[in-house]
């Protein structure tokens, strides 16, 4: 689905498709149709949202025996799929930002990074308040299970509210505020390295993000490797805490954590320009925020371990 797009399917111009259809708040206006080389027909419709005025294009293919014969950037609809069903499919599938105009893509990216900056500022503010309040730090340190439950609960809240504009912002900032409080303990432990860790994290994040945004390379292939890496990171950390208790192994885990979350920055930034839909600003922001937060914590841990 592409906003305000033109359609070219090849073959010769044929008769107009069926009359205008209204369905679930959308009006499908016939534009034209094309006879395809394989004998099928591509019906071209302009979709107009009666409430918002949003304009989209839709193509319904008819009489096509093999979907692989259709090379089209919008959607593939098989023979026998009527216009109402096709419109229902359209309503359920948001266009990814990579299919939008340049101005729409830039607008989406600006929104994500503006939200990211605000999220970081919220986390820094709550972390500072927690560091200066001994009671809060003691509560976090002595109630690990409750803290973990609250963390997961707020994360679920963000997922639930991610496509609800106002509620999504509240959920995101609630989560980032709480992670700022949680970060107070490592910040106190390695207080003399906080500034250096923050600078290094921002430089790494900025450099990797700039590389992806300017080259537009697709790093989606890294997803599986990074997921396995995080699992191994968690398992290794638990083994070291409850069994090995090795400072050398802990140092290796810290280095691995830095590399893995640098990889996640490449991966998630790539998703922002290639895979997120235009209404997924909250999820895109959350992904980058977690990458930056974890990178900061691992670099802080690395500097602290180097000192020891």
UniProtKB/TrEMBL annotation:
Belongs to the BI1 family. It comes from Potamilus streckersoni. GO terms for cellular component: membrane. It comes from the Eukaryota. This is Uncharacterized protein. InterPro entries: Bax_inhibitor_1-related. It is found in: Membrane. It is a multi-pass membrane protein. PANTHER family: BAX INHIBITOR-RELATED, PROTEIN LIFEGUARD 4. The chain crosses the membrane at residues 112-131, 137-160, 167-188, 194-213, 225-245, 251-269, 281-300. Keywords: Membrane, Transmembrane, Transmembrane helix.
């Amino acid at each position: 689905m592409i906003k305000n797009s033109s359609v070219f399917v090849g073959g010769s111009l044929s008769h107009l498709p069926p009359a205008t259809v209204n369905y679930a708040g959308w009006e499908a206006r016939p534009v034209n149709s094309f006879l395809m080389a394989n004998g099928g027909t591509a019906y071209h419709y302009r979709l107009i949202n009666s409430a918002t005025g949003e304009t989209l294009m839709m193509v319904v293919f008819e009489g096509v025996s093999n979907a692989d014969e259709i090379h089209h950037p919008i959607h593939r609809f098989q023979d026998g799929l009527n216009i109402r069903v096709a419109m229902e499919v359209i309503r359920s599938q948001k266009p990814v930002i990579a299919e939008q105009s340049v101005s729409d893509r830039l607008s989406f990216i600006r929104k994500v990074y503006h939200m990211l900056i605000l999220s970081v500022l919220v986390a820094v503010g709550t972390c500072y308040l927690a560091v200066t309040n001994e009671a809060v730090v003691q509560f976090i340190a002595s109630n690990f299970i409750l803290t973990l439950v609250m963390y997961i609960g707020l994360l679920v809240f963000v997922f639930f509210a991610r496509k609800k504009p106002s509620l999504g912002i509240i959920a995101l900032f609630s989560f980032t505020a709480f992670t700022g409080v949680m970060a107070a303990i490592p910040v106190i432990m390695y207080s003399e390295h906080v500034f250096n860790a923050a600078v290094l994290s921002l430089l790494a994040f900025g450099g990797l993000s700039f590389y992806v945004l300017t080259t537009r390379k697709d790093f989606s292939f890294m997803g599986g490797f990074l997921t396995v890496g995080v699992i191994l990171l968690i398992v290794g950390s638990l083994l070291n805490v409850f069994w090995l208790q090795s400072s050398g192994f802990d140092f290796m885990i810290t280095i691995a954590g830095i590399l893995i979350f640098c990889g996640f920055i490449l991966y998630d930034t790539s998703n922002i320009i290639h895979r997120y839909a235009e209404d997924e600003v909250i999820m895109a922001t959350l992904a980058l925020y977690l990458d930056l937060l974890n990178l900061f914590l691992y670099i802080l841990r690395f500097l602290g371990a180097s000192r020891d």
